[in-house]
Amino acid sequence: MAEPSFLTAVRESYDTVAADYVERVPPPAALDPLSRAMLAGFAELVRTAGPGPVADLGCGPGRVTAHLAGLGVSAFGVDLSPKMIGLARRAYPDLRFTEGSMTALEIGGDELGGVLAWYSTHHTPPQWLPAVFAEFHRTLAPGGYLLWGDYVGDERLQPTQGYGRPVSYESYLLPLERVVGLLEQAGLLVTARLEQEPGGRVNRPHACLLARKPAPIPI
């Protein structure tokens, strides 16, 4: 079956901008305090629950994957872009990074203690999000956690330049309540949310959602 065109556009665009992305995007230590706190809280919850490793989906050059590892989490990264994966492997040779798509993860069912989707789903057309969130649910172990962070709004963006280079991807900003509804339709229970207005380096509203795959109730 032919690959969806949006995946091709994302892969080719991030292959093009990979080196510039590393130079222009600040590391996790430079994130705002609330975003760092959400990542730290997610890591603590996963460590405490202990059902498996964390997959950083759309990991890019691996900085956030490494940040999670530094917080005591067993983490690995997955990204569409071969060049991003190459950068991640060179920068963090002790961690595992693989090429892959969130639409069809090469990860077994109930395998993960956590899924991190950190500013990595906004290039996904809304009609594909149910399939992506279903993959999050499928791969999470019962009791496992998802941390989703991204821009929010009600807008479709079609940039021609990104990080100083030509790109062909699009971005789809959705209202936060719509994202919550899609996660819940996928069987994930949203337990916390953080909404932030533009500020600092971020010029759009953005949000974080913490969700969990329910564990069976003991009989």
Automatic annotation (TrEMBL):
Keywords: Methyltransferase, Transferase. GO terms for molecular function: methyltransferase activity. This is Class I SAM-dependent methyltransferase. The keyword Methyltransferase applies. It holds the Pfam family Methyltransf_25. It comes from the Bacteria. GO terms for biological process: methylation. The keyword Methyltransferase applies. It comes from Streptomyces rugosispiralis. Residues 54-144 form the Methyltransferase domain.
